[in-house]
Amino acid sequence: MKVAYLGPAASFTHSAASKAFPYGEMQAKNTIPDCIMAIEKEEVDVAVVPIENTIEGSVNVTLDYLFHFSKVPVVAEIVLPISQHLMVHPENKTAWKSVQKVMSHPQALAQCHTFLQAELYGTEQEVTPSTAYAAKYVSEHPEELLAAIAPRMASERYGLEIVQEDAQDLELNQTRFFVLSRIPIEIPLIKEEEKTTLTFLLPQNLPGALHKILSTFAWRNIDMSRIESRPLKTSLGEYFFFVDLLSAGKSQLVANAVEEIGLIGGEVRNLGTYHVYRLAKD
């Protein structure tokens, strides 16, 4: 089984993917869109992409690509505890407070905002495609006074020295990952709650349209665990919506709600019904 993930090796997505699919053939991709398009083009059997973080919220590029480009269903959700560590090349261990640049994925930099303001105020921050990319770059450029924010797995793989553990603002920091696949999958972890994720467009020129759509879930006693809007990228003020529903034992009620939304003029797509798998902190 070929599994696409946001690389390079030792990224958080790699960690989630390898624990969910320990015998899979891991294929690192440079960007989240690359992961999604690889599964769309049937180059891989599974794609694992980040969807939401405790501190920084949704990963917008994932939401946008799932709505606009992806037809592959969501078949699982993986929740990974996130510990962000500041690391440098071993040659620069004693000079880490004088680094000229801190590199990482934008979500990781934002998750460590308080630490960076307190300990490395004014230091340039450079955005990279992933945390592991930053660690790899720092390992390959010992002559530059650089630091990376990345997982412990990256420090071990790329031979870096951790100079500050748990630099994230919140101790209980977690990231959700969606697993996309056209084929049945088996994940060797404990199944937890069942969810269904829908996207929808509001009916045109209908006062109270959002209220009417959400009421289709409320009066059927279907709990929502999340709702989010994103720009439709057509004109200002046009949006599409994501909702996660707690759907265990309520598949027919969800189907009925979807039918009702269609009857009032909304456009709905079911991205998938799946179980949640939570990983323990290393």
From TrEMBL:
The record's InterPro entries line, in alphabetical order, gives: ACT-like_dom_sf, ACT_dom, Chor_mutase/pphenate_deHydtase, Preph_deHydtase, Preph_deHydtase_CS
Q: Which reaction does it catalyse?
A: prephenate + H(+) = 3-phenylpyruvate + CO2 + H2O
Q: Where is this site: Essential for prephenate dehydratase activity?
A: 175
Gene Ontology process terms (BP) = L-phenylalanine biosynthetic process
List its EC numbers: 4.2.1.51
State the Gene Ontology terms under molecular function: prephenate dehydratase activity
Location of the ACT domain: 198-275
Q: What class of enzyme is it?
A: lyase
The Prephenate dehydratase domain covers which part of the protein?
2-182
Q: Which Pfam families match?
A: ACT (PF01842), PDT (PF00800)
- GO cellular component annotations of the record: cytoplasm
Domain of life here? Bacteria
State the signal peptide span.
none
Q: Which UniProt keywords apply?
A: Amino-acid biosynthesis, Aromatic amino acid biosynthesis, Lyase, Phenylalanine biosynthesis
Provide the coiled-coil residue spans.
none
Q: Which PANTHER family match?
A: PREPHENATE DEHYDRATASE P PROTEIN (PTHR21022), PREPHENATE DEHYDRATASE-RELATED (PTHR21022:SF19)
Record-given protein name: Prephenate dehydratase
* Protein's organism: Listeria grayi FSL F6-1183
